[in-house]
Amino acid sequence: MLQSVKEIARSISALDAKAAAAAQLHLDSLTKPPGSLGKLESVAMKLAGITGRVATSFPKSAVVVMAADHGVCAEGISAFPAEVTPQMVRNFLAGGAAVNVLARQAGAEVMCVDIGVDADIEHPDLIAKKIRYGTGNIAVGPAMSREEAEAAILVGFEIVKQAAARGVGCFVTGEMGIGNTTASAALMSAFTGIPARETVGRGTGISEERWRHKVGVVDRALACNRPDPADPIGTLAKLGGLEIAGLTGVILGAAANRCPVVIDGFISSVAALAAQRIAPESAGYMIASHVSQEQGHAQLLSLLGLEPMLHLEMRLGEGTGGVLALHLLDAACRIMAEMATFQGAGVSTSHENAKDGTPENGGNGL
Ligand SMILES: Cc1cc2ncn([C@H]3O[C@H](COP(=O)(O)O)[C@@H](O)[C@H]3O)c2cc1C
Ligand SMILES: O=C(O)c1cccnc1
């Protein structure tokens, strides 16, 4: 039987501090100056805290690409027409999009989900979970009902639950939805109080003039919907993004199954913010892949307490940065499993260790 979002939130527990501490000890026993592998070490510790295991081989991973349409496209806020959403879904299913290429390279499965595309798509590999044909226009009313937002969260949660049951141990968030940087900016402003002029970015590449218009659209969306940031599901319902709510469920699902979840760009990070507001402990299971060029993303990551691993001037979404970061997670796992210890390799330890008994740690605080 399906759980409620409240029950899901209650099922998410804190990271395993003992396993993280054991990972730190193991890292400091390896043949390198303490802390010298920088963020790879913090990732290794975080993975231990998440999974409860100090050293494991890198698990099977999957990127969940949630696709949905946005009524707010009627306001002319994107550089591209709304029909690109279903067109790109067909591209994902044919294996030709950027996320497909990068997922193949990283050995990750692509799970493409129709959670609210405004078109009928049939394909044997499509995960058909349409809740409605796109959201309402948030500049003039709510994106969806509260029930629809909750149903979208549960879709993401169930997909992860089933994938975890067949052995997927690491998830990446991905999305497709023309107009979704507008919904994301509105959600970020609603949750944080940061004004629209600081959360609205250039999305697919709009002009300065269209950007100013987009800021006005987000201001209208906030004024007419009056979201209550203390009610995260209600806020998701008002400002929407079926794919954003779906990804919130993916993140909660990963945390409930004690799996790491790699958070992709701006839109995924807004879903992460909603997940954190629903279940604060879920933030411990998040790993930020990269910082997007989209305005607002760097600030959003710092509000989530996440440090991105990659700075590649990307601004695509789909889960592209997320699957690229899998190479680094794999690297961290291999370091933990394969590197020799000082003792095993007969290598002398640091004078600093001998002096005060405390290993100097880089303090890379992921
Ligand atoms: C061909 C194409 C492929 C994409 N893949 C991801 N996005 C990205 O751009 C969209 C958000 O930007 P905006 O809010 O400005 O519409 C989302 O679909 C996002 O995933 C794409 C956009 C396009 C045009
Ligand atoms: O950072 C992202 O995820 C992003 C930025 C611009 C357009 N689409 C996605």
UniProtKB/TrEMBL annotation:
Keyword Glycosyltransferase: yes
Region (Disordered): 346-366
Keyword Cell division in annotation: no
Protein name: Nicotinate-nucleotide--dimethylbenzimidazole phosphoribosyltransferase
Pathway(s) this gene product operates in, as recorded in its UniProt entry: Nucleoside biosynthesis; alpha-ribazole biosynthesis; alpha-ribazole from 5,6-dimethylbenzimidazole: step 1/2
One function term, GO molecular function aspect: nicotinate-nucleotide-dimethylbenzimidazole phosphoribosyltransferase activity
Coiled-coil positions: none
Protein family membership: Belongs to the CobT family.
Entry annotation: catalytic residues: E318 (proton acceptor)
Originating species: Paenibacillus faecis
Gene from which the chain derives: cobT
